[in-house]
Design brief:
The complex is a heterodimer. By secondary structure, chain A is α+β, with helices and mostly antiparallel strands. Chain A has two domains: 98 residues, no CATH class; 166 residues, Beta Barrel (OB fold (Dihydrolipoamide Acetyltransferase, E2P)), CATH 2.40.50. Chain A has ten helices and nine strands. In chain A, helix 3 packs antiparallel against helix 4. Chain A is flat and about 90 Å long. Chain B is mainly alpha-helical. Chain B has two domains: 104 residues, RNA polymerase sigma factor, region 2, helix turn helix motif (Rna Polymerase Sigma Factor, Chain: A), CATH 1.10.1740.10; 73 residues, Arc Repressor Mutant, subunit A (Orthogonal Bundle). Classes of the chains: A alpha+beta, B mainly alpha. Chains A and B meet through helix 1, helix 2, helix 6 and helix 10 of A and helix 2, helix 3, helix 6, helix 7 and helix 8 of B.
């Protein structure tokens, strides 16, 4: 029985005894109430009228006047030009001296102007200018924050639900990101100080993907968290955090991995890879030094070495570097092909 | 139903037009029934849940936001309702019935059980819970792997991988006439 036949049989069983559509609709329709009124989205806005501002300004003048009066009527209204501090403690040079009263007054006036402007612009339904938004955060912040949150949420949703198109495909096809740029951005870098390539094995031409899959007991998607190299032996030690595992049988999946290898296919810190592992004497290890890890990018594309010949049909872009040809693959189905081939191996 | 058609239906619902809900029902009624049936294994319960589901949609669809992938959105609601239903049922059911309920024997050892009735529904019960859910969402609710990944919050590769495994197990079981 093929996969399609299994699916069809499942579907037919689930389809049995489907209730009469009209009868069920009548039942639903009969229970529908009035559409509840949608609550208005609360919009918090501070609004000051002109009368309030006039009153506030008048009160301020009274307070300032009283202050001047209580200082004996001889003190001048202090300004930025008037010294307020003793010379002993005054800053050197012509540093401006802060005047509380005048500054408060100026702030109040400026704030009043801004609020007036904001009210005018908002009530006119016009967009608030960036400068104005910066000047009146109390008024615009909630709406702006909500907009930001919406934008973030929509962006998240786009990321989650726009999956009908393979991620990254557009970029690759549009040529906006060339293969070379991608490799340089994500892939192994020839000038990385660690590991030193001259201490690693040269590429092993005897790689056999079927053999590698046959030896694979576990696929892991992991992120490199640390890289170090023994300068004597050239052995590179990778510390990895396991993100996902794909196993054929019940094997205890690791959460952290330490892999030691002299593979020429170096991995870079903080990058993610799909690795083929088998059990060794000291725990999980790469199935062989000649098996290239599959680089996994944040946009869903993969960097696959041409050794993985069974994925050749999926190559969007081909890149050459010192370790051979690499393919950028954006179709996630490619991994299914890999896993499918793996599961078919007894 | 395309996203645009769905959003047009939502607009109708917002204005209190029942035809908007009818359009959604015509497009997804059968799927949701199949989905509920595959979860609760009881025709009357599945019908009741389908009915409740569309009544719930009538209330919450006006809050739907454009561009969020309506099929995934609809399925999340159905999935939550089915889960709630099963949870309630397990609380209300006497212990002896729980033991014999087909919906609640998922963890039963496959080795201890011989499937006498080779129905796919019975075979589905022998898959892991993850696999069952993915098969139901793909076959009953007719979601794509990408939509299932969004609903379950799992990576696409994992979903596709588990689905393949599940179908492989079903194939093997059908072929050998033995438990999965």
């Amino acid at each position: 029985m093929t996969r399609k036949e299994i699916e069809k049989r499942c579907f037919e069983e689930m389809q049995q005894n489907i209730p009469d559509r009209e009868a069920l609709w009548q039942r639903i329709e009969g229970s529908l109430g009035e559409q509840p009124a949608q609550p208005e989205v609360p919009h918090i806005r501070v609004r000051h009228t002109g009368r309030y501002i006039m009153t506030a300004a008048a009160c301020l003048l009274v307070v300032v006047g009283a202050s001047v009066f209580w200082r004996g009527g001889t003190a001048k209204l202090e300004t930025n030009h008037a010294p307020m501090m003793d010379n002993a403690v005054a800053p050197a040079g012509d540093a401006p001296v802060y005047d509380d009263a005048a500054a408060d007054e100026a702030d109040e006036a400026a704030e009043a102007d801004e609020e007036d402007n904001a009210d005018q612009e908002i009530s006119d339904g016009e967009a608030v200018s960036p400068q104005h938004s910066a000047g009146a955060p109390a008024m615009d912040a909630p709406a702006a924050a909500a907009d930001d949150a919406d934008a973030d949420w929509e962006a998240d949703c786009d990321a989650d639900f726009s999956a009908d198109e393979p991620a990254g495909e557009a970029d690759v096809q549009d040529g906006a990101v060339s293969g070379r740029q991608s490799l340089e951005q994500y892939g192994p870098k020839a000038d990385d100080p660690i590991p030193r390539r001259d201490l690693l094995y040269t590429q092993d031409a005897a790689f056999d993907p079927e053999e590698a899959l046959a030896r694979t007991e576990l696929f892991v998607k992991a992120q490199v968290t640390g890289v170090s190299q023994d300068p004597q032996t050239g052995i590179v030690t990778y510390a990895l955090s396991v993100l996902e595992t794909y196993e054929k049988s019940d094997v205890p999946a690791p959460y952290e991995l330490t892999l030691r290898t002299r593979s020429p296919y170096t991995m870079t810190e903080q990058s993610q890879y799909l690795l083929t592992l088998c059990q060794g004497e000291d725990g999980w290890q790469l199935v062989s030094d000649s098996t290239a890890p599959i680089g996994l990018y944040a946009d869903g594309t993969m960097l696959v070495h041409s050794e993985w010949t069974l994925l050749e049909d999926y190559a969007d872009t081909r890149i050459e570097d010192g370790t051979g040809e690499w393919w950028i693959i954006s179709d996630p189905e490619a991994l299914d092909v890999l896993f499918d081939a793996w599961t078919r191996i007894p | 139903m395309t996203d645009a058609e769905f959003e047009a239906a939502v607009e109708q619902i917002r204005s209190g037009d029942k035809q908007g809900l009818r359009a959604v029902y015509d497009a997804y009624g059968d799927r949701m029934y199949r989905f509920f049936l595959s979860r609760v294994h009881h025709h009357q319960d599945a019908q009741d849940l389908t009915s409740e589901y569309f009544l719930k949609l009538w209330e919450c669809l006006p809050g739907y936001r454009k561009g969020t992938g309506h099929r995934s959105w609809l399925t999340v609601i159905a999935r939550n309702m089915a889960t709630d239903h099963l949870r309630r049922a397990s609380r209300e059911m006497p212990d002896d019935e729980i033991e014999s309920s087909p919906a609640l024997t998922q963890s039963e050892s496959a080795e201890d059980t011989v499937i006498s009735e080779m129905s796919m529904t019975a075979l589905l019960e022998r898959l892991t819970l993850d696999e069952q859910e993915i098969v139901r969402l793909h076959i009953a609710a007719q979601l794509t792997f990408r939509e299932i990944a969004a609903v379950l919050g799992r990576p696409l590769g994992t979903v596709a991988w588990k689905y393949r495994n599940a179908i492989g197990k079903l194939q093997k079981a059908v072929k050998e006439g033995s438990p999965v």
